[in-house]
Design goal:
Elements lengths: L23 E6 L5 H10 L4 E4 L3 H8 L10 H9 L3 E3 L8 E6 L14 H13 L5 E4 L7 H14 L8 E4 L18 E5 L2 H11 L6 E3 L3 H31 L4 H8 L19 H17 L4 H11 L1 H15 L8 E5 L15 H10 L3 E5 L13 E2 L10 E4 L8 H7 L3 E3 L10 E2 L1
Parallel strand pairs: 1-2, 1-4, 2-3, 4-5, 5-6, 7-8, 9-10, 9-12, 10-11, 12-13, 13-14
Antiparallel strand pairs: 6-7
Helix pairs in contact: 4-5, 7-9, 7-10, 9-10, 11-12
């Protein structure tokens, strides 16, 4: 729910209702997994929406009704176009917009913090076209202080306008979960932290048109940190069960049964499960922003995050070592053995391969001498950086060992186990004794 303000505030005036001044209610900068769903929801909320992207191919595909993200189909994009949505590479569209939202990538830099190159480029573009009354929101995940210390001064210097006085500025962390049909952009609560209380009010009013629930943070830094806390919580707990998977195997303890039993406690426990590594943009990357910020600004480590990163990052190598042991126990050398990986995306039932642990797993197995194949119903071509052939499920019997890396709904796992000479399950979905399990 929206938290009440402690005192009446006035937002910076918006001229969005003046048709002679503005033609667009919203410009979304960055039309990927975050920006495109926002543009879609806003278009169907009745807003006039434009999308701005540096990729001419992305723009051409969207204007031609072709989607490139899992959560939106080609028909969804066609419907957006029918609602008036248009995509462009021309930043001049920002001069005609009431609201500009930055949804560009923030990958890790070589130093371990976020690479703000795309955010800075988007901010510079907005600054060149910023006008009084405009609302600017950063959604890209980053370290605490980016909105106030990076985006704000860049906008003010480029435009000569003052944030919180001449225009509104806020941070609102994206919470997109690709493939999740229960918690969508609209049904997931949206955190908003404005530079001033007035900026928060303006941003809340905007997001209230496209989501069901808006939660007001104390400010942009708190909103930035909330996003990092969410993913750091998951990162650390996944690392906990990943480390438990190792010693439970050595002690001949069924960790999957342990988790099942612990999950019956109705309070004080949330189940996390081990796997071959962590993937996607959020879990393997976002906590490092916080760790890097603590080290660079305070001079000491965020030890939980750094330990979790160490554990989770080594899981693909651990799984490769377990595969080697399974083959050895069967009297087969890893060198020359045919190993097939099932499921190479970072989560089930989507095509998204960002930071998928299947890639380092394939490389470790290749280094051990394995001959690799893969199958994924959502990925027709896969290039992990080592030789790998696509394999059909009917041909699994020709493999020396099959590894379930990702559990897609399309996989009839018991049938695949029966079809395979050796089967290694990294997801705990097989019955005890039917396959080797992580």
């Amino acid at each position: 729910m929206t938290q009440p303000q402690t005192a009446p505030v006035q937002t910076v005036p918006s001229h969005a209702g003046d048709a002679s001044w503005t033609e667009v209610d919203l410009v979304v900068i960055g039309l990927g997994y975050v920006g495109l769903p926002l543009a879609h929801e806003a278009a169907f909320a009745g807003l006039r929406v434009a999308g701005l992207d540096v990729s001419g191919q992305v723009v051409a595909d969207l204007n031609g009704g072709r989607s490139h993200v899992d959560d939106l189909s080609h028909d969804d994009v066609d419907a957006m176009l029918a609602q008036g949505f248009t995509a462009t590479t021309d930043e001049a569209v920002l001069s005609r917009a009431s609201v500009a939202v930055i949804c560009v990538p923030t990958p890790l830099s070589p130093e371990g913090g976020p690479d703000l190159g795309a955010v800075q480029a988007a901010t510079a573009a907005i600054g060149r076209h910023l006008h009084p009354g405009q609302l600017v929101v950063l959604e890209s995940t980053t370290y605490p202080g980016t909105t106030t210390d990076v985006v704000r001064p860049a906008l003010e210097q480029a435009s000569g306008l003052v944030a919180g006085v001449d225009f509104n500025l806020a941070f609102s962390p994206e919470r997109i979960d690709p493939g999740n049909t229960e918690f969508t952009l609209r049904t997931t609560p949206k955190i908003v932290g404005g530079l001033t209380p007035a900026c928060t009010v303006r941003a809340t009013a905007f997001y209230g048109k496209v989501v069901d629930t808006v939660v007001e943070a104390a400010g942009p830094t708190e909103a930035e940190t909330a996003k990092l806390l969410e993913n750091t919580y998951r990162h650390i707990n996944i690392a906990l069960v990943n480390e438990m998977a190792r010693f439970c195997h050595d002690l001949d303890i069924d960790l999957w049964n342990v988790i099942s039993c612990a999950s019956t406690k109705p309070f004080g426990f949330q189940a996390f499960r081990p796997g071959p590594g962590v993937g996607g943009h959020c879990i393997p990357i976002d906590p490092n922003y916080l760790s890097h910020s603590v080290r660079s600004r305070l001079g000491y480590p965020f030890r939980f995050v750094e330990l979790a990163e160490e554990i989770n990052a080594t899981m693909p190598a651990y799984v490769a070592h377990r595969v080697q042991n399974v083959l050895n126990e069967a009297g087969k050398a890893t060198t020359g053995s045919r190993v097939v990986l099932l499921g190479v995306t970072y989560k089930p039932d989507i095509a998204d391969q960002r930071q998928s642990p299947a890639v380092p797993l394939a490389r470790h197995l290749h280094d051990l001498g394995a001959v690799l194949g893969y199958h994924d119903p959502h990925v027709t071509s896969w290039e992990p950086g080592v030789p790998v052939d696509r394999v059909e499920l009917d041909d699994l019997g020709e493999a020396d060992l099959v590894v379930l890396v990702q559990q897609h709904a399309a996989y009839d796992v018991p049938a695949l186990v029966e079809r395979s000479a050796l089967f290694f399950d990294t997801r705990g979905v097989t019955t005890p004794g039917s396959a080797h399990r992580l």
